[in-house]
Prior knowledge:
The structure is a homodimer. The first copy, chain A, is an alpha/beta fold. Chain A has helices at about 30-35, 60, 125-135, 145-150, 155-160, 170-175, 180-190, 230-245, 250-270, 275-280, 280-295; strands at about 5, 10-15, 20-25, 45-50, 70-75, 80-85, 90-95, 115-120, 140-145, 165-170, 195-200, 205-210, 215. In chain A, the strands form two sheets. In chain A, strands 5-4-1-8-9-10-11-12-13 form a nine-stranded mixed beta sheet, with helices on both faces. In chain A, helix 3 (about 125-135) packs parallel to helix 5 (about 155-160) and helix 8 packs antiparallel against helix 9.
Amino acid sequence: MALVVVGSVAIDSIRTPFGEMNEGLGGSATYFSAAAGFLCHPQLVAIVGEDFDLHELDFLRERGVDLSTVRTVEGKTFRWKGVYEDLNEAKTLATELNVFQNFAPELNDAQRDAEVVFLANIQPTLQLSVLDQVRKPRFVAADTMNLWIQSAREPLLEVLRRVDMIVINEGEARMLADERNTISAAKKIRDMGPRVVVIKRGEFGALLFHEDRFFFAPAVPLETVLDPTGAGDSFAGGFMGSIACASCINDDSLRRGVIAGTVMASFAVQGFGLQRMRTLSSAEVQARYSALCEMMRFDHAPLALA
Amino acid sequence: MALVVVGSVAIDSIRTPFGEMNEGLGGSATYFSAAAGFLCHPQLVAIVGEDFDLHELDFLRERGVDLSTVRTVEGKTFRWKGVYEDLNEAKTLATELNVFQNFAPELNDAQRDAEVVFLANIQPTLQLSVLDQVRKPRFVAADTMNLWIQSAREPLLEVLRRVDMIVINEGEARMLADERNTISAAKKIRDMGPRVVVIKRGEFGALLFHEDRFFFAPAVPLETVLDPTGAGDSFAGGFMGSIACASCINDDSLRRGVIAGTVMASFAVQGFGLQRMRTLSSAEVQARYSALCEMMRFDHAPLALA
């Protein structure tokens, strides 16, 4: 199934306790595509400024990502500058919207027929404009963040009513649902529209809530995490890439989506910006997937009760 | 295999955001036995004061727990008073050691031959005195806490050198190992002696580290958690009870131990003190175990990479 992602391609400056990156490649749709590209051939809808060197995206093209709808327009590329005091939370130092200010995502005719669509973390109104363009998607998922929960709640609720799945951080899920308990929050968000809710818990993994059933995946244990930026986008890329190549979308393929996403996120955090995702090989992906399976394996025979 | 647990039987007073319990049954060995009693017939070594109504433990006897080495001595029973501002951390308001001040755990002759031994969270010097008494255990595990890491590090390190497994909270593992990263901490603790390290992550589940391999289990998702007291002890009870009835102690049985512990801990937190553990049935345990298996199930077929 064809997968279209709409989101940002950005220039990031990042500092973490383990180093820094100045004006490097970033953006939600970039991470997403870098991950999804291992599983299918995603089509990237995004916008960059004249200052952006499109060769930066060559590795995506080589991975099979369709970049024909990455538009270059007058002005400067979207920039984000952030710092991580610890690895659990980014503090934004500066956001320059630049060309993103007038971004009106436009899908080409073939993309409007895409079966699988991912709305990366952009303004809910832009997400809605994409939803207005697609004709008969089988599975649409969206990401969001605290900024939109607080400043654009109404359009966000409209997005929620129109998507099949929401991918959201645990703290933001609690904020959105106004619930302290994550399980209660997941159920309440499900009642807002999406039949599938995926809650990202950072180093504690991810939780899938679908048809009153839960599935949990731990994060891959890592001794060295350099930069958490893009972990969630890479997770979403692995997830949606896996969904796009599944023969049907059901509880089993959603679970495998969580696992694929978990694997991808684990690589994203091992380098600054897209450094690790850039050099990643299929063999490395498959090996880490096997290791994750092994970490979750146990004998399901009934308990021998006294 | 015979399972002996040495720890506390206590009278607890607890307040959480969801209610309180005044002078109710508590104690690490009590929770442990209540959980382990579903899987084997643990023998409880503990001490209570003259003010303790032994009928409070009748439900343990009915569950097959051997209480013949619970001694009543002159004085008052060990008391703990704590409050949870949120559910993640207990704040101790008062600890009255009482009879525990002069506790010198004494195993009877048969208990000295026990194959499986659990040293609940008591002073490391007492844990060492138990280790001096056992003759040829096949598997010895210990719990500990920040208090001993800070105030009794030397005897604790001696305990670590002499046990097969340590069960420890995530924050305390980092403190013990002086490592910010949990995976690094687990490895460092393994190098201190125990070949198996189990790290408890509260609502995020548990991590087993054994022979360079990791296993992760999520916590059972609960919408209502009334009182986290005893969750770790109940986890240990389920774990060790499962080990004691395993035909051999290997990676598979250790993993099943984590799962059994996870199930037991999920019940402990659903009532104040031992309320929920007291009324728990085998059928409920088996049903929740099945639900947990279902939450961790996914198709392990290789990823279909593009």
